[in-house]
Write a structure and sequence with these properties.
The chain has about 475 residues and is of the alpha/beta class. Helices cover about 45% and strands about 10% of the residues. It is built from 19 helices and 13 strands. The chain has a seven-stranded parallel sheet with strand order 3-2-1-4-5-6-7, with helices on both faces. Helix 9 links the parallel strand 6 and strand 7. Helix 7 crosses helix 8 and helix 12 runs parallel beside helix 13. The radius of gyration is 22 Å and the shape is globular. The two termini are about 45 Å apart. The N terminus and C terminus are likely disordered. Bound molecules: uridine-5'-diphosphate-glucose. The site of uridine-5'-diphosphate-glucose has 26 residues, from helix 2, helix 14 and helix 15.
């Protein structure tokens, strides 16, 4: 009986079409497939085209996985970068949501598609797309929200309305960013204004930041979803998870998923991995290399690039630096040449994209200069690599505070981009025995969480049972949309 129910459980997963979200959803899907469930992975048309053969090969390798897509409403030549997030969110809320509604209406019925997949019994949608769970529930399909960020950042977003009530937000004009913040549960002893999402800094009595507003509204609406799922673990985020559990219908802490259900990185990589960087790392001494990557959305100015470069060169270690093609705008080509020339023959490897997990676990990597996107943060934690944090936006400001002041597996360089500081912080991260010891201990702790009877592994099993139970509950009747 249990087996039959398992075979009929079919989850449609629907991430935001951004790299950090795609990776996280793919690892989750891999876990579901291993548990015996069917998975429909919903991309945008643009991304599915961009992934091309890699996605087709991943689906061909598993008969219970398929990739479908909906339009994102943006013109084909739109760069879909960090400057276009509001347009992308609007396209998802309007164009994508209409196509998703039609698709889900057909997939929830037996025989809705010709490929033999059972009807969709549950939706797991990105936690910043509340429309996705509203539509699913309207169609009688239960929906879970999956936030691909840290529990501490979700709690901070959830607290924003209270921060406004308390008068903590907006910040006073010209106020001290190091002042403590009251009103985010349990974090009052270490959270400062500068550790809230950077968008909080631009708020005024009359100006509301659209991105902050969208994320806060989605977080508040998560209370309506059947459950909130997070790619984190109890031992890293126990207190934040306990507070969230009081606010949500149920909370599952099932991560770090990339270490529990590794999926082929190429299946969701929007850029092509550089093949030469691993061979370059092979030629470097143990723990001698600084690895720099600021994720898939950060952009930097040429001035910031120059400060990083001089700081790195002065620190004196060889470095592997990911400079995405869209990271520096027009000065990208010149920057590449400058970096290689400044470092000296063979002392640097500068590439557009790397297989990050392989890089972080390479014996030559001594520290990770990161923007603290949540995936990069937990990937660094799992490999026990000391971090230097330079957060860019959204959840990254609070993640980096946790690295520097709570977990202490790295150093927070937030808001400073000066060569002397880069040099000093990189040196400290490479040379501090204490940071290295703490990073190692944290990695071991997380390893216990993801082992068979560890907290995250048990939470994943509980989540799968929850999804299976939802799939045995008869779907509600589809609402009658015929004209009155
Ligand atoms: O050369 C590279 C660089 C990165 N990565 C991978 O790309 C992902 C990047 O994700 P993340 O570190 O989370 O950064 P962003 O791409 O910036 O992610 C967005 O999504 C995250 C999850 O929601 C948020 O935490 C971030 O703030 C948000 O910017 C990670 O899995 C990396 O391993 C590679 O494979 N190769």
């Amino acid at each position: 009986m249990a087996e039959a129910a398992a075979d009929m459980a079919h989850v449609l997963v629907f991430p935001i079409p951004a790299q950090g979200h795609l990776n996280s959803f793919l690892h989750f899907s891999t876990g579901l497939l291993r548990a015996g469930l069917h998975v429909t992975f919903l991309h945008t048309d643009h991304n599915l085209r961009r992934l091309g053969a890699a996605a087709r090969e991943a689906a061909a390798a598993s008969p219970r996985l398929r990739f479908l897509s909906v339009p994102d409403g943006l013109p084909d030549d739109d760069p879909r970068g960090v400057g276009n997030i509001p347009q992308l969110m609007e396209g998802l809320r309007t164009t994508a949501s209409a196509a998703y509604r039609d698709l889900l209406a057909s997939l929830r019925r037996a025989g809705g598609t010709a490929d033999g997949f059972p009807p969709v019994t549950c939706v797991v949608a990105d936690g910043i797309m509340p429309f996705a769970w509203d539509i699913a529930e309207e169609l009688g399909v239960p929906a879970i929200a999956y936030r691909t960020v840290s529990a501490c950042s979700v709690l901070a977003y959830l607290s924003v309305p209270r921060l406004v009530e308390l008068g903590e937000l907006p910040f006073p004009e010209g106020g001290d960013l190091d002042a403590p913040i009251r009103g985010v549960p349990w974090m009052e002893s270490f959270l400062r204004r500068r550790d809230l999402p950077v968008q909080c800094r631009t708020l005024t009595d009359t100006y509301q930041d659209p991105l902050l507003e969208t994320v806060v509204a989605a977080t508040v609406q998560t209370r309506k979803a059947r459950a909130l799922m997070l790619n984190t673990t109890a031992s890293l985020e126990r207190a934040s998870l306990a507070h969230l559990a009081r606010e949500m219908r149920d909370v599952f802490a099932v991560g770090p998923l990339h270490a529990m259900s590794p999926a082929p990185a190429v299946a969701t990589s929007l850029w092509r991995h550089d093949d030469g960087c691993m061979a370059w790392l092979d030629g470097q001494a143990e723990r001698s290399v600084v690895y720099i990557s600021l994720g898939s959305l950060t952009v930097i100015s040429h001035g910031q690039f120059t400060e990083f470069l001089h700081g790195l060169v002065a620190a004196g270690y060889p470095f592997l630096w990911v400079l995405r093609p869209d990271m520096l705008g027009a000065s990208q080509g010149a920057a590449l040449q400058e970096a290689v020339a400044a470092a000296g023959e063979g002392r640097s490897c500068v590439v557009p994209w790397v297989p990050q997990r392989d890089v972080l676990r390479h014996r030559a990597v001594g520290c990770f200069l990161t923007h603290c996107g949540w995936n990069s943060t937990i990937e660094g934690v799992v490999e026990g690599v000391p971090m230097v944090c330079w957060p860019f936006f959204v959840d990254q400001q609070i993640n980096s505070r946790f690295v520097g002041a709570v977990w202490r597996n790295g150093l927070d360089m937030k808001d400073v981009c000066e060569r002397a500081v880069v040099e000093g912080t990189v040196r400290a991260a490479m040379e501090s025995a204490e940071v290295r010891r703490t990073a190692r201990a944290l990695a071991e702790q997380v390893e216990r969480d993801i082992a068979d009877d560890g907290s995250s592994a048990l939470e994943f099993k509980r989540l799968v049972s929850f999804i299976r139970e939802l799939s045995t509950t008869p779907a509600a009747a589809e609402p009658d949309r015929s004209p009155e």
